Amino acid sequence: MRPAAEALAQNRSLPRSRNLYLVPYMLWMVLFVFAPILLIVYDSLFDVEGAFTFSNYVHFFTPVYMKMTFSSFWYAFLITAFSLLVGYPAAYLLTKTKHKQLWLLLIILPSWINLLLKTYAFIGLFGTYGAANAILKTIGIGQQQILFTDFSFIFVSVYIFIPFMILPVFNALEEMNPSLIDASRDLGASPWTTFRRVIFPLTINGVKSGCQAVFIPALSLFMITRLIAGSRIITLGTAIEQHFLVTQDWGMGATIAVFLILAMAIIMVLTGTRGRTRR
């Protein structure tokens, strides 16, 4: 009876010990997630002079900010779409290579380099006297304005974010049962039908995770937008930067940040995977 009583007491103490392990996590969430969000919401309720007002939220729905919002979502969609178009075939080819882990490491390795350094490197490549224009001159096309264009902005953004698309898709492809593909081929399905009816549906969770990992940070870009696109592209991220650092209108900048947080939360809900899988 005594060992049974001790085992029962030990089992009762397990939930308490598990709850203690959650304390650092909850403390981190409160200090570095919830508290900053509450501070942003608080700052959004004041104007430049420090007076309490809701005018910032009214001003956000003016045509100027609505155009910035549309521009932000449009470029984030383009960056995500191109990342998926390039990343999915790349991830699929990685699963077929011999040294897949080595190739995956080489794809992820550039993400360890500082973002600002990579951005300045592309400024040198796409500049007037950069390597890209030198190649265009060599093949007879001539010098072109590559920097400060939509092409350069999307190209650099896709290059930076594409590892975050390849990794979840690669993991989803690796977890897929290869016998299902063999069964599809044995039943006479074409490669395109096999991809459309078998491979892609089984890896949709990886695609959702990749789109989430790319779309959300692309929605709030400001440094790449400023350095690569210049003044051609103005998004909500650059608007926040201007309000906080130039105009000192922290209330309006915080208001834009509140709407960005809401948009990101909605995207996470829409692209999140359900706990129960469909049969």
From TrEMBL:
<feature type="transmembrane region" description="Helical">
    <location>
        <begin position="214"/>
        <end position="234"/>
    </location>
</feature>
<dbReference type="Pfam" id="PF00528">
    <property type="entry name" value="BPD_transp_1"/>
</dbReference>
<keyword id="KW-0472">Membrane</keyword>
<dbReference type="InterPro" id="IPR000515">
    <property type="entry name" value="MetI-like"/>
</dbReference>
<keyword id="KW-0812">Transmembrane</keyword>
<protein>
    <submittedName>
        <fullName>ABC transporter permease</fullName>
    </submittedName>
</protein>
<keyword id="KW-1003">Cell membrane</keyword>
<keyword id="KW-1133">Transmembrane helix</keyword>
<feature type="transmembrane region" description="Helical">
    <location>
        <begin position="146"/>
        <end position="170"/>
    </location>
</feature>
<dbReference type="GO" id="GO:0005886">
    <property type="term" value="C:plasma membrane"/>
</dbReference>
<feature type="transmembrane region" description="Helical">
    <location>
        <begin position="254"/>
        <end position="273"/>
    </location>
</feature>
<feature type="domain" description="ABC transmembrane type-1">
    <location>
        <begin position="69"/>
        <end position="271"/>
    </location>
</feature>
<feature type="transmembrane region" description="Helical">
    <location>
        <begin position="102"/>
        <end position="126"/>
    </location>
</feature>
<comment type="similarity">
    <text>Belongs to the binding-protein-dependent transport system permease family. CysTW subfamily.</text>
</comment>
<feature type="transmembrane region" description="Helical">
    <location>
        <begin position="20"/>
        <end position="42"/>
    </location>
</feature>
<feature type="transmembrane region" description="Helical">
    <location>
        <begin position="73"/>
        <end position="95"/>
    </location>
</feature>
<dbReference type="GO" id="GO:0055085">
    <property type="term" value="P:transmembrane transport"/>
</dbReference>
<keyword id="KW-0813">Transport</keyword>
<dbReference type="InterPro" id="IPR035906">
    <property type="entry name" value="MetI-like_sf"/>
</dbReference>
